[in-house]
Amino acid sequence: MKDTSTEYFADDLIIVGEGMVDAEPVTEHGWETTLLLDFGNAIAAVRSKEDLFDTVKLFLRRLNILRGYAIRMINDDGKTMSTYVHDRTVTAPDDPLILEVAKTRYPIKDGIQDRVLNSDTPVFLMVDEEIAQGRDAGYLHFWKSVGFVKVAGMPLQTASRKWGILWLAMQEINVPLVESLCSLISIAISNIKTNEQILVLKEKLEQENQYLNEQLSNSYSAEIVGQHPAMHHVYKLISRVAGAPSSVLILGETGTGKELIARAIHQASPRNNKLMIKINCAAMPANLIESELFGHEKGAFTGAFERRIGKFEQANNSTLFLDEIGELPLELQVKLLRVIQEREFERIGGKTTIKVDVRIIAATNRNLEDEVEAGRFRADLYYRLNVFPIQLPALRERKEDLIPLANFFISRYSRQTGISVKGMTAEVARALQGYDWPGNVRELEHLIERSILLTNDNTLTAVHLPGIKNEPSVQDDAPPLTMESRERYHIIGTLKRCSGKIGGEGGAAEILDIPSTTLHSKMRRLKITKKDYK
């Protein structure tokens, strides 16, 4: 056996072929063929950016290219380029300059990147000369800071498109060999992008199936019940705005049916062939809302173990319903405004700009004008959302609809529970009409459901109106209760039924269908303490 290692010198490039064979020394051409075959086999297994990084690092080091390399990709806007993978050993990982270069989008037409992309052969740059000519790209100054004198750039492209540039910090290169490597890298990038699109479509399909199942289990047809003139006005507004792409702001007290109105608008719109996507801005911690709205990339933050598609991306060419918009934190209001204005965003931790066509319907039980005045809601976002406001009347303002609504819920929950209930007595009807319903239609629905579960007859003969008949202040000879008193008693009664539990599953906030923060606020305002419900 004899050592057949061969070395080919081309200034800074040293190509080393290693092996112990009994035959003649390996020729340069034979060594190149072996390297390309190995690289091709490795590239075939690449499915992600990290796979590409590991593979490129391994094979470029077999070329003894120890002075640095990077792949920069053309962004979706077609006008800028960003770092895709880079040699992480040329400087400290937390070096401010490399961090800046890695995250910055540089314009393609900067006199350097466009020169490389439009060339069929490698382009060699003398770093000092480019800077002397007035080129001010940040990556030039980074190259100079780490001692790169000469850098070669080669376009990465397939038959269908140009993908980006491979940069190598070296004096000379074996042009045919590196061009072949670039072709294989380009194929790998094309495969990665295709695989990413498949994963995105798969996740969208899974999420749309989830929403479809939710809609199938909750029929929204014919659920808007009401003949009061105020409701007829709402119907007219729905018909006016449904066909337009305009933003809609639905206003009304808790429990008035704002989501039903949003769904009615969506179903009557040209976007009804896709699912309406909903997010409750008050139902999750502030630090998770951004990820829920815009999505995140794998590794974007602690706990981000996989990519997540946000609600905006899911709602592309459809409708996004932002419930409880008044609860959105100020810092996220800025980002929401930008997406509404620009119709584009980036996932957390991502560099790709995602363009969307989303119709916004927002809802709140707050007075947003007061919130703007108090500095809790941005005025510019309010004006963007308040293009077409729809005010829903409280149930106490349309008592004519109360009995038809009650009969509707009796029919629904009789069917769902299997308990045959055909209607209600006159006494029950009078009791319902004598109550002011601070929880509105939702409170009525929950009351009917509970009453059906408790009844032993095929007619409702009693309803358990919360917190009123058991309170001393509601005797027949007592003065009428104020709305504030009724709301107080209603909350106290609900808290008693929940054994004082406010938030979480089975808590009073869940039963009242309001955020726990809102319930705490109401309790402070109404001076409700533990001694009232314990």
From TrEMBL:
GO biological process terms, semicolon-separated: regulation of DNA-templated transcription
PROSITE patterns (alphabetical): SIGMA54_INTERACT_1, SIGMA54_INTERACT_3, SIGMA54_INTERACT_4
Domain Sigma-54 factor interaction: residue ranges: 224-453
Pfam families: AAA_lid_14, Sigma54_activat
SMART domains according to UniProt: AAA
Keyword field: Activator, ATP-binding, Coiled coil, DNA-binding, Nucleotide-binding, Transcription, Transcription regulation
UniProt KW Transcription regulation keyword: yes
Superkingdom classification of source: Bacteria
Coiled coil: 195-222
Molecular-function GO terms, alphabetical: ATP binding; DNA binding
Protein name: Transcriptional regulator containing GAF, AAA-type ATPase, and DNA-binding Fis domains
